[in-house]
Amino acid sequence: MTASGRSVALTIGDPNGIGPEIAVKAAVALAGNTPRVVLVGDAFVIRHYAEREAKGFAVREVAITAEDSPQPQTIDVVPVESLPREAFAPGHVDGAAGRATVAYVEAALTSVRAGQACAIVGCPHNEMAVNAAGIAFTGYPGLVARLSGLAEERVFLMLIGDRLRIAHVTLHERLQNALARLTPALVEAAGRACNEALIALGIEQPRIGMFGINPHAGENGLFGDDDARVTAPAAERLRRAGIAVEGPIGADLMLGRTDLHGFLAMYHDQGHIPVKLLAGRTASALSIGAGVVFCSVGHGSAFDIAGRGIADPAAVLRAIDLVGARGG
């Protein structure tokens, strides 16, 4: 792979959240290392944080090209002019910042499609800010799908933390709506994306545990027929396709298994709670199914501490490590 292909495009997320700060801190921590990290965002926002968090480092505006190579004490930036200067207000929700968040991802995806970067890591977004910009948004997977010309229900989230890798069939929506959307076809698509992601992560023959919808996966009809109608047929289709899937089994029992490489959750809390319990803010959120390597952090934009210089870049560093290995 070329030097440009070994670059990771790190978008700064919501510029009014902690994203720019942790992006700069991550760039400093990884300066001169592989994969090369290139920040994507408004240059004036990045310079603001570089002056405070990267003493002795220069900010260099670049295009990600094969001719470029990392320079010592330098933070490379692909400048995206999106945020009006008057809208830069750390700690405040603003539609202009939400629009900028999306613009940064668009620019990063362009770099990946051009073969200039191997992967994208997205710093935390703010859903309220993006929606305030008039852009329908429920998280990075749906955005990556739309920007890639795919139906949103074909790109899924895999949350990774501690020993767990949990893909989600549905994500940020009212639970009643999520359950109503579950079909064998949707569960099967998520299972296939989960399997492909695990292989890309270096697991040659993944074994996946599928959670049931209802407690005890319905207990043979005692707790409803949802699993008999939805998850069981999906699991059988996946097995016929050669994918090693066990279940559906109740999530509480399935999570005790240590011989499985990944799990498939039916809705947000079913997958998020165990990962957040074990990994906390260091979890990584991988968007799967779009054909691009896109990972974000497992925590929010933390407006309450934005601009205070105390944000921890640990989750960003973990995500960069994850996609660097996956993209290489």
Cα Rg: 20 Å
The CATH topology of the largest domain is: Isopropylmalate Dehydrogenase
Number of strands: 12
Structural class: alpha/beta
- Per DSSP, what share of the residues sits in E-state strands of 2 or more residues? 15-25%
- Read across the widest sheet, the strand sequence of neighbours is 3-4-2-1-5-12-11-6-7-10-8-9
Describe the biggest sheet? Answer: 12 strands, mixed
Shape: elongated
Q: Which architecture of the largest domain per CATH?
A: 3-Layer(aba) Sandwich
Mean pLDDT: 91
Helix content estimate: 25-40%
CATH superfamily of the largest domain: Isopropylmalate Dehydrogenase
Number of helices: 11
Domain unit count: 2
Query: Which stretches of 5+ consecutive residues score pLDDT under 50?
Result: 1-5
Q: Give the H and E element order.
A: EHEHEEHEHHEEHHEHEHEHEEH
End-to-end Cα distance: 7 Å
CATH class of the largest domain: Alpha Beta
Quick take:
The chain is α/β, with parallel strands linked by helices and 328 residues long. It has eleven helices and twelve strands.
Describe the model.
The protein has eleven helices and twelve strands. It has 328 residues and is of the alpha/beta class. The protein folds into two domains: 192 residues, Isopropylmalate Dehydrogenase; 125 residues, Isopropylmalate Dehydrogenase. Strand 1, helix 1 and strand 2 form a beta-alpha-beta unit. The termini are close together. The N terminus is likely disordered.
